[in-house]
């Protein structure tokens, strides 16, 4: 096979409609359960269910955990800073969606 015949191979995690358990979330993000629990305590991610054993996380939680991990690893941001940064990023995304919607009228 020639080099110009090679195609790109993409890898990733497919998140289906169903919710993720704590273990599934940890595996998909390659983080420890203790770290995810810390994120829950800081309200960075919010699971469904009252008890750790029955927690379920949405696909959005995967994105937030991965973003939190990047902020911590690459910028050294602490958990409080991560919570603030992610909330601000969500707000910016919401405002952009509103601007886009207004521009369509």
User: How big a fraction of the residues is strand?
Assistant: under 5%
Low-confidence stretches: none
Give the number of helices: 4
* Largest sheet features: none
The gyration radius over C-alpha positions equals 17 Å
Shape: globular
Kindly give the count of domains. Answer: 1
How much helicity do the residues have?
55-70%
Overall mean pLDDT: 87
CATH topology title: Multidrug-efflux Transporter Regulator, Chain: A, Domain 2
Report the count of strand segments.
0
Class by helix and strand content? mainly alpha
N-to-C CA distance: 52 Å
Plain-language structure description:
The protein contains 4 helices and no strands. With 105 residues, it is mostly helical. The protein has one domain: Orthogonal Bundle (Multidrug-efflux Transporter Regulator, Chain: A, Domain 2). The longest helix has 25 residues. The radius of gyration is 17 Å and the shape is globular.
């Amino acid at each position: 096979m020639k080099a110009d015949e090679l195609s790109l191979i993409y890898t990733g995690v497919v998140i289906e409609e169903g919710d993720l358990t704590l273990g599934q979330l940890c595996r998909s993000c390659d983080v420890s359960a203790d770290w995810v629990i810390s994120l829950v305590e800081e309200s960075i991610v919010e699971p469904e269910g009252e008890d750790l054993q029955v927690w379920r996380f949405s696909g959005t939680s995967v994105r937030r955990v991965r973003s939190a991990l990047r902020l911590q690893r690459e910028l050294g941001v602490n958990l409080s800073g991560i919570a603030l940064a992610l909330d601000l990023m969500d707000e910016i995304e919401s405002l952009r969606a509103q601007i886009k919607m207004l521009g369509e009228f």
